[in-house]
Amino acid sequence: MKDRSSTPPLHVHVDENTPVHVHIKKLPKPSAASSQKSHKRGMKGDTVNVRRSVRVKTKNPPHCLEITP
């Protein structure tokens, strides 16, 4: 998994029976990087089905999001 140092960390606690669907949005790349763009086939994007916890480590201070039913 890539280190997403420009985004805050995401840490979620839910009951294992609670369905959770998470999309991680990509930031737009600089114009120099877009000229070297490669086409990937069969990729649906950054989609993760989460049952228990997700953690993305960054250098930014931690943020906590609690989801209660």
From TrEMBL:
The residue stretches assigned to a coiled coil in this entry are none
**Ranges for region Disordered:** 27-69
Q: Does the keyword Coiled coil apply?
A: yes
Q: Which domain of life is it from?
A: Eukaryota
Q: What keywords are annotated for this sequence in UniProt?
A: Cell projection, Cilium, Coiled coil, Cytoplasm, Cytoskeleton, Developmental protein, Differentiation, Flagellum, Microtubule, Spermatogenesis
Compartments where found = Cell projection, Cilium, Flagellum; Cytoplasm, Cytoskeleton, Microtubule organizing center, Centrosome, Centriole; Cytoplasm, Cytoskeleton, Spindle pole
Q: Which GO terms describe its cellular component?
A: centriole; microtubule; motile cilium; spindle pole
The record's principal subcellular location, in a coarse class, is other
One GO biological process this protein is involved in is: spermatogenesis
Q: Where are the transmembrane segments?
A: none
What PANTHER family does the annotation carry?
Answer: OUTER DENSE FIBER OF SPERM TAILS 2, OUTER DENSE FIBER PROTEIN 2
What is the recorded function of this protein according to its Swiss-Prot or TrEMBL entry?
Answer: Seems to be a major component of sperm tail outer dense fibers (ODF). ODFs are filamentous structures located on the outside of the axoneme in the midpiece and principal piece of the mammalian sperm tail and may help to maintain the passive elastic structures and elastic recoil of the sperm tail. May have a modulating influence on sperm motility. Functions as a general scaffold protein that is specifically localized at the distal/subdistal appendages of mother centrioles. Component of the centrosome matrix required for the localization of PLK1 and NIN to the centrosomes.
Q: Which family does it belong to?
A: Belongs to the ODF2 family.
Name used for this protein in its record: Outer dense fiber protein 2
Source organism of the structure: Mus musculus (Mouse)
Q: State the taxonomy lineage.
A: Eukaryota, Metazoa, Chordata, Craniata, Vertebrata
Which gene underlies this protein?
Answer: Odf2
